[in-house]
Write a structure and sequence with these properties.
- It contains 15 helices and 17 strands.
- The chain is an alpha+beta fold.
- A 5-stranded mixed β-barrel has the order 12-14-15-16-17.
- Strand 15 and strand 16 form a beta hairpin.
- Helix 3 crosses helix 4, helix 11 packs across helix 15 and helix 13 runs parallel beside helix 15.
Length: 609
């Protein structure tokens, strides 16, 4: 039960000494009693206050001109040209129905369509975690470039895109009224995508300038999303210069009105790398990343988010429509915003965390530490004076000169209680916040500090996909075996009329039997895995095993039934080797951790004592 797996984390010594800093982007549970349930409750209670403080700080920074730096002038916006009317209208057209968006929905893949254009949904099968009511229905993405299954609950109405469409419609109505007074109309030559197949271009005369006429044509369903358009002056139109000035003025009003909707509600600056959540709100990716360090809830509506907290571009693509709109209207400001974001990231990468090379710790779990070494007394004192956080890593033996003396994965802890003795020793209680990988490290005042990279689980969408794939394959295999067994038993019954075969429920496809081998765990649903594990704990507690004694339960709390929490509780309680426990820190899925726990249970129940 102790395979020597290669270490996934690799760190290198830091070249330049730097003063260690606290991790300002980590959660703040506050002071908590030893009970796990109370620790978690108080940690959740602190999240809202921490997020409010964080938002207030960022707002103050924005008011001080943090986007451009002190003394730098604001970026001037270049108004799009009237000749770009077709490109502008396409930004607000649904790719499915070709009319301007109505209740626009941004999909998890970053593309947007009308709510009424959502494909037909189907019930999701073979998924038991998290099994939330709003995640029971899904649909296949209508875009060939994606073609993934999207959960209906992850597709909220895009708030910003909806407001921008309304702004465009209001300006179009105003422009049409002005055009009516001037008797202005535009000839639009529609180049149909099928023109190459022999279909001639269509010419339409529509009231208004180029932008208003193009929008009106799209709203009437006369302009396909892929179609191109060129413009001709109407004989009754005003002089070219007057017409251009009129259309430019209209575009300038659109640009100014739209800009008011493009600020991130966390940093109050222009959206940078915009990411739209399942509830329909859009934020800068770096801002949302920092918020998710504290809370899994949307900063605006407080709905729980199911996205991967790391917000990798592969699993959490940006809002493609909003990116194109910003590139059209505020390209220069967007470039300046990117430079500022890059500078902020470079500063954050210089932050160093103190590392306690001692033992294993796990997220959401409490740990009590006796601090007596002088170097760690200094480290803990500095942590208490700062943000009360430090990293815990497991020591390991150096194999050769230059190797680090600790494993590369660890857990960030926050001190929730401390008691200092007269001789300088201290007793502290801390709780696990998150996992990390050590990227670089060095010695500082006798203890180790390092640059850390936070580790988070995959998104719920990826978690559910893994369960569906594994359980679905298991059901198929069980069904094939069932058919073979049924044929054998039918033959036996034909040979012996008195023979009767009764199938046990556990042999039916879809009902996994009690696992006898580690391979059997793959066929079990996530809910079956947690039931199997908690059932084992109940049996062991009935036998009064030492590792479930009252002192342990008072520290770690009662056995949780939440699949996301149980593995961390179980590994904290179970008497297995540290090299085995360390495996859990490597995992990125709840299901993988439950299967590791299940493998431990199988070995304990089948081992000869």
């Amino acid at each position: 039960m102790s395979p020597n797996e290669p270490d996934l984390a690799a760190s290198s010594p830091l070249p330049d000494p730097q003063e260690p800093r606290g991790a300002a982007s980590q959660p703040s549970p506050g002071t908590a009693p030893p009970s796990l349930g109370e620790l978690q409750a108080e940690q959740q209670q602190q999240q809202s206050q921490t997020q409010a403080d964080l938002t207030s700080t960022w707002q103050h920074q924005d008011q001080q001109g943090s986007d451009r730096g002190p003394g730098q002038p604001p970026v001037e916006h270049r108004t799009p040209l009237p000749e770009q009317a077709r490109e502008i209208v396409r930004l607000f057209q649904c790719p499915c129905c070709s009319v301007p968006y109505k209740d626009a929905v941004t999909l998890p893949c970053g593309r947007s369509i009308c709510k009424t254009c959502l494909p037909e949904t189907h019930a999701r099968i073979s998924i038991t975690y998290p099994a939330l009511p709003n995640r029971s229905q899904a649909f296949r993405c209508p875009f060939d470039e994606c073609n993934k299954e999207h959960v209906l609950g992850d597709c909220g109405v895009d708030v910003i895109l909806g407001k921008m469409v309304q702004i465009m419609q209001d300006e179009i109505e105003r422009a049409k009224a002005d055009a009516l007074e001037l008797k202005l109309s535009t000839q639009i030559v529609i180049k149909d995508p099928l023109e190459a197949a022999g279909i001639a271009s269509l010419v339409r005369v529509v009231n208004g300038g180029r932008l208003a006429a193009t929008w009106t044509l799209a709203a009437e369903g006369g302009l396909l999303f892929e179609a191109e358009a060129t413009y001709r002056e109407s004989p009754s139109s005003p002089p070219r210069e007057d017409l251009t000035n009129l259309e430019t003025e209209s575009l300038s009003r659109v640009q100014e009105a739209l800009r008011g909707e493009m600020d991130c509600q966390i940093c109050y600056a222009l959206l940078y790398d915009p990411l739209t959540t399942g509830c329909g709100h859009t934020f800068c990716r770096p801002c949302l990343h920092r918020v998710l360090d504290h809370s899994r809830n949307c900063p605006v509506c407080r709905q729980e988010l199911s996205i991967n907290p790391l917000l990798r571009h592969g699993s959490c693509p940006p809002n493609k429509n909003i990116k194109r709109i910003m590139d059209m209207f505020w390209k220069d400001e967007l470039v300046a915003r990117g430079e500022t974001a890059a500078a902020e990231l470079a500063m954050r990468l210089q932050d160093l965390e103190p590392l306690f090379i001692c033992t294993l710790a796990f997220p959401m779990m409490p740990i009590i530490l006796h601090i007596f070494e002088p170097r760690y007394r200094l480290m803990i004192r500095r942590a208490l004076e700062g943000d009360r956080t430090f990293g815990m890593v497991l020591p390991r033996r150096r194999r050769q000169s230059g190797d680090r003396c600790f494993h590369g994965l660890g857990t960030l802890l926050r001190i929730v209680r401390s008691e200092v003795y007269p001789d300088g020793r201290s007793l502290i209680q801390a709780v696990g916040l998150s996992r990390f990988r050590v990227l670089q490290h060095r010695e500082f005042d006798g203890y180790t500090v390092g640059r850390l990279d936070r580790i988070d689980d995959v998104s719920l969408e990826e978690e559910e996909a893994m369960e569906a794939a594994e359980v679905g394959a298991g059901i198929q295999a069980a069904g094939d075996n069932h058919d073979e067994d049924r044929g054998i038993h039918t033959q036996d019954a034909d040979n012996d009329g008195d023979a009767a075969h009764v199938h046990d429920d556990s042999s039916r496809p879809g009902i996994p039997p009690r696992p006898m081998r580690v391979a059997d765990l793959d066929r079990m649903t996530t809910q079956s895995l947690i039931q199997y594990a908690t059932g084992f704990v109940a049996r062991m507690r009935a036998q009064s095993v030492p590792w479930l004694a009252d002192p342990m339960l008072r520290l770690y709390g009662e056995c949780p039934d939440d699949p996301a929490v149980f593995p961390w509780w179980f590994v904290s309680m179970l008497p297995v080797k540290d090299v085995e426990k360390y495996r859990l820190l490597r995992t990125l899925r709840v299901r993988d951790r439950l299967k590791i726990c299940g493998a431990w249970i199988i070995e304990m129940e089948t081992a000869p004592w």
